[in-house]
Amino acid sequence: MKIELIHMGNALLEKAIEYFWKQWGNESNFDFYKNCIENSVSNDISIPKFYVMLDDEKIIGSYALLLNDLISRQDLCPWFACLFVDENYRNQGLATKVIQHGCDESRKRGFDSLYLSTDINDFYEKKGWHYYANGYTAFGDRIKIYSKKLNQDSASIDHK
């Protein structure tokens, strides 16, 4: 298994766009995902960046580092988003590897904290994330925000 950054000229670009859309999109927003990913690879910016996990050449997982995860807390950055591992590959520790890769990539890009939003209970806490605050989606739904300090694995943070 390997994790690969989607970049310009990458043979996986079109497959990755379709993968992200199939996992997170709906019938009406393919162009949203296509535009996001294509613009993330077209220049040498720090983020957003999109990654896929491969088993040989088959995409089996994903994540993204984003400026914002379409949530009200525009003041927080970067966001770990779009974590997905195909069902046949679950319960093998791959999500932990993907999360660690995201933390390492964020640290390399100069960030000392990473954020995510989720409605899942007890998953990210087991991976060293700490509840940070509540935020709101564009549809008005309240959602939990977690953070992780990147300069040390088990740092506690102030809740806001």
Explain what the structure shows.
This protein has 160 residues and is α+β, with helices and mostly antiparallel strands. Helices cover 24% and strands 30% of the residues. It is built from 3 helices and 7 strands. The protein has a 4-stranded antiparallel sheet with strand order 1-2-3-4, sandwiched between helices. Strands 5-7-6 form a 3-stranded antiparallel sheet. A hairpin with a 2-residue loop joins strand 2 and strand 3. Helix 1 packs across helix 2. The longest helix is centred in the middle third of the chain and has 15 residues. The chain is globular and about 40 Å long. The C terminus is likely disordered.
The averaged pLDDT comes out at: 90
Number of strands: 7
**General form:** globular
Strand order of the largest sheet: 1-2-3-4
Radius of gyration, CA atoms, in whole angstroms: 15 Å
Helix content bin:
10-25%
Strand content: 25-35%
Whole-Å distance between the termini?
A: 37 Å
Oligomerization status of the protein chains: single chain
| Helix/strand order | EHHEEEHEEE
> Tally the helices: what do you get?
3
Overall SS class: alpha+beta
Which regions contain 5 or more consecutive residues with pLDDT less than 50? 153-160
Largest sheet, if any? 4 strands, antiparallel
